[in-house]
Amino acid sequence: MATTSAKLEKDDVWRMENCPADSVALGRAAWTLLHTAAAYYPDRPAPSQMESMRLFMSSLVENYPCFSKEFKQYMEEEPIRVGSKKKLSEWLCKQHNKVNEKLGKPPFDCAIVFDRWLQGSCKQCEQ
Ligand SMILES: Cc1cc2nc3c(=O)[nH]c(=O)nc-3n(C[C@H](O)[C@H](O)[C@H](O)COP(=O)(O)OP(=O)(O)OC[C@H]3O[C@@H](n4cnc5c(N)ncnc54)[C@H](O)[C@@H]3O)c2cc1C
C-alpha cells in the first residue's frame, strides 16, 4: 500500500513537471496567483495601481484558456473592487465561491481569506 501511494506521488510529480496543465492544475495555479496578488495589493492603492489591477484582471479573464465566458459574466454581475486590499480580496473570494458553487464544492469562508493567502497562520504552514 505504502509503495503504491509513494509511486502515485512520484507519478504525480512527474506529470506536474512534464505534462500540459489540465483544468484542475491550471485552476489551482490561477487562483493562487489571483488570491496572492490580492493579498499583497496595497491598503491604499494609487489610482494607477487600481487601473493596473482592473486591467490585469480583465486581461487574465480574456486570455484564460477555459471558462472565461462564465467568469466574465460573474464579473459583469459584480464588478471588480479595487479600492483596497480588503475589498479586492473579499470580491475575489466571492467570485471564487461562485465557481465553487457551480462545481458543487462547499463555499470558502471569506472571513479567513488572509489567514489562507497572506498570514498562513495555521500550524501546518509553519513547517
Ligand atoms: C477564473 C476561473 C474560473 C474557473 N471556472 C471553472 C469552471 O467553470 N469549471 C471548472 O471545472 N473549473 C473551473 N475553474 C477551476 C476550478 O475553480 C478549480 O481551480 C479546480 O477545480 C481545482 O479545484 P481545487 O479543489 O483544487 O481548489 P481551487 O478551487 O483551485 O482552490 C484552491 C485553494 O483556494 C482556496 N479557496 C477555495 N475557495 C476559495 C475562495 N472562495 N476564496 C479564497 N480561497 C479559496 C482553498 O484553500 C483551495 O484549496 C476555474 C478557475 C478559474 C481561475
TrEMBL record:
Its EC number is 1.8.3.2. Gene3D superfamilies: ERV/ALR sulfhydryl oxidase domain. It comes from the Eukaryota. Its cofactor is FAD. Residues 19-117 form the ERV/ALR sulfhydryl oxidase domain. InterPro entries: ALR/ERV (IPR039799), ERV/ALR_sulphydryl_oxid_sf (IPR036774), ERV/ALR_sulphydryl_oxidase (IPR017905). Transmembrane segments: none annotated. This is Sulfhydryl oxidase. It comes from Parasitella parasitica. The gene is PARPA_10502.1 scaffold 40716.
